């Protein structure tokens, strides 16, 4: 690595229904937020960042759904990486974490891993006790919230204070309505405990505009969204809100992005 190192580096290794994992590196700490891929796939995704499984400090689970937790137990067993989750998530993940090194945290009670400060906050989603994370390191704040059906004032406070926001922008309402998905599934996605639409993400980001942030839109649906549509919807709402010019990035459906320098 050459040149001036950023205070913090975030790499979206995978994002979408096929699997989610985000690497946050700072001060020698390497946190993996979710591990919804096989250990081999995580290892391959880490390689361009020069990181091996054994270099990970911890895995943080947002919730137990397979696309977020699938590889956590196997990585922990193979590379002795501790898996952090709240007790309800660790229990719901069940056999997938057998033999893993697990550490419980309490939602709303901040904790430290190495020199990194972490706050887990509740989000509405159809899982046991789903959370988002605000990770503070080297004077920078990163808020990660994927898999949530609606937004509220407590999320807004995290979004407003972040230097980098990774936020779900799952579907375009028009595309979802005309897609081949059965209605029960469309209703689940659109519910307050499902997923955020491009318009939902745009509204939350516009409401909290003001501070200069980078925004990375994530967990885009392959069937019901387009990268350009998500990005343009959010960009337009931010421009109308008249806040500082946020950089807006979007991860392609079931794609990856990074590294994003924060700082
Ligand atoms: Zn998911
Ligand atoms: Zn989920």
Summarize the structure in words.
By secondary structure, the protein is an alpha/beta fold. Helices cover 29% and strands 28% of the residues. The chain has a single domain, classed as Ribonuclease Z/Hydroxyacylglutathione hydrolase-like (Metallo-beta-lactamase, Chain A, 4-Layer Sandwich), CATH 3.60.15. The protein has nine helices and 14 strands. The longest helix has 15 residues. Helix 8 runs parallel beside helix 9. The strands form two sheets. Strands 6-5-4-3-2-1-14 form a seven-stranded mixed β-sheet. A seven-stranded mixed β-sheet has the order 7-8-9-10-11-12-13, covered by helices on one side. It binds zinc ion (2 copies). One zinc ion (ZN) binds next to loops. The site of one zinc ion (ZN) has 5 residues, from loops.
